[in-house]
């Protein structure tokens, strides 16, 4: 079946045209809603013209125009949003240098930015699902040849259920023993194969290399679906050590090349968050002070990166009390919780001062939540590998928390599930994963039935 292919220049031209149309479309309601903002001026024309020209280039750099077949829509949405924000910042910088930024209406700029972003999201969303609907109907399908069989139980389900939804037509499945490699190129040509999927263990690396060699003269896409053992090895960072390539087996992907990106995001996000949240933080501090005796902040030593002890900052949500060497987890209807503290804990507002911990370098915005030192000792005895979660900095929010595992860990099963989500985050860290967790927390993750 012939594949639908839209040249890159056409995609870029269409997006530029749509941005111009969206800008024109947004302006008329703006005139009605805000009639006294003045006429369109040179600064606004320059900003819109700059955006129409530059946005497709930025989106191309961010891989927005790549094929998103079988890839998550969320990641596409994030890339579009980041690209559009970069375009706006670049436009404002140019207007600043040519001394035109003072003539720009701040109200119009914010309205135009959000309006165009929403309409572009709507267009990309419709396009994404229109293509997906066509693929479900058998149109624009890609022919796939499979070599091997993955041991992961999700492989069979995802291959056939989701593969069909994304427009993949499976033409055959061969094991290394049932297909001679010298016949593979002929098979690919005969059935007009678009992609060859290799689903073999890393122990079959020699065979995988042979497949690459036999198909090197054919324009066919090769995909390897590694087994769990290979994935665990690949997620570890590679370094130059004694002049030789070396893989560090006990460091997650957030360490190494990703560490700078994560640290830059942590510091920038926390700095901006503290500025915008400062009125709220001051208000909460006054409420705590007038509600009960004691300090505004509660400082507790907890384990940080590589087991280093850090002092975690929180708004005090409990009455002053003695633990006598025993750290008791907060429970439902806990009598130690103050009136204000009840709401602070319910909506996770007591965690907001931890942005200061992030700026100090002790914590990250996203990561496994830190537990009390006494709890760490208990939990490490209960669960093997529990302390591996401290291979990264603890976070204000995390993958476990947005999946419902927050608050009291009163059963071993809850603790095991929290550890499972934490280890998944560590093994699969990426900048986009952090963005996803932050956005989910911002819109849905501040309240929970387990928060008390």
From TrEMBL:
Compartment annotation: Membrane
Tree of life domain: Bacteria
A GO MF label: undecaprenyl-phosphate glucose phosphotransferase activity
Topology with respect to the bilayer: Multi-pass membrane protein
GO biological process, one term: colanic acid biosynthetic process
Domain named Bacterial sugar transferase: residues: 262-443
Alphabetized InterPro entries for the sequence: Bact_transf, EPS_sugar_tfrase, Undecaprenyl-P_gluc_Ptfrase
Keyword line: Membrane, Transferase, Transmembrane, Transmembrane helix
Any Gene Ontology CC annotation: membrane
Transmembrane segments: 12-30, 42-64, 76-98, 110-131, 269-288
Family from the record: Belongs to the bacterial sugar transferase family.
Protein name as it appears in the record: Undecaprenyl-phosphate glucose phosphotransferase
Source organism (scientific name): Polynucleobacter wuianus
